[in-house]
Amino acid sequence: MCLFGLFVHSTYPLKALSAFGLCLTLMTLFNDLRAHSYPAALMGLDKFSKTVFVFLVYGSILGCALGMGYRWGYGMELFSGTFGVFAPVAVLIGATEEILYRGYIQGRVHRFGPFKAAAFAALCHTAYKCSLFVFHNQPVDINMFLLGTFTFGVGLTLGILRERAGSLLPAVAAHVVFDIVAYGEYAQAPWWVWS
Questions:
Q1: Can you tell me the distance from the alpha carbon of 43 to that of 20, in angstroms, rounded to the nearest whole number?
Q2: Measuring CA to CA, how many Å separate 31 from each of 44, 55, 66, 117, 149?
């Protein structure tokens, strides 16, 4: 995914490396899940209970609060009240990131302990997020330390949420609600998503 992030904003032929990185990630994921005896358990998608529901509500509130904080930090209204055409895409991107990082990666390293698994998944997600901004082609200054710290902190929180709930669903809810609140009214994807 870092290969994808590093070169997604490039021109061809370097942009082809981003597609290669994405395809390599998908092939690895699907081959490993196909060989796993119970992939739903690995991904944290094998149960739903009252506890999971409570954490699902908590995750949704957390995602809303983080989305409002993001909007406040950029001087935007806390809620836009409208949804643009990017909203469903934002939901898919957020859910996919959670399935990959808090689902698959955290599930694969869970044997090292819940906190270490959550931290490793957060570190992998942070590396990917930061890689999106390394070779960007926009006239903006990105504070990589702040981006990395925030992404790691939120990722660790979502990983711990998955561990406490015993399910990936609360982390997915938090990320999806964040994306809807933060980017819901956008008519197109932010420049860092793809360009």
A1: 24
A2: 18, 31, 34, 21, 32
How far from 117 is each of 6, 62, 124, 134, 193, CA to CA, in Å? Answer: 25, 21, 11, 26, 26
Residues 24 and 27: their CA atoms lie apart, in Å, by 5
Extract the tokens encoding 120. Answer: 């490793």
Rounded CA separation 185/182 (Å): 8
**Which residues neighbour 98 within 8 Å (Cβ) at sequence distance 6 or greater?**
158, 168, 171, 172, 175
pTM of the predicted protein model = 0.91
Among residues 103, 123, 89, which one has the least CA distance to residue 2?
123
The residue ranking higher by pLDDT, 38 or 156, is 156
Overall residue count recorded for the chain in this entry: 195
Give the residue from 72, 77, 92 showing the smallest Cα distance to 180: 92
Q: Which residues of 66-94 are buried (b: 16+ CB within 10 A; e: fewer)?
A: bbbebbeeeeeeeebeeeeebbebbbebb
- DSSP assignment, residue 36? S
What is the rounded distance in angstroms from the CA atom of residue 128 to the CA atom of residue 30?
19
Structure confidence by residue, pLDDT tens digits, 9-21: 888 888 899 999 9
CA distances from 127 to 2, 15, 79, 181 (A): 7, 19, 29, 24
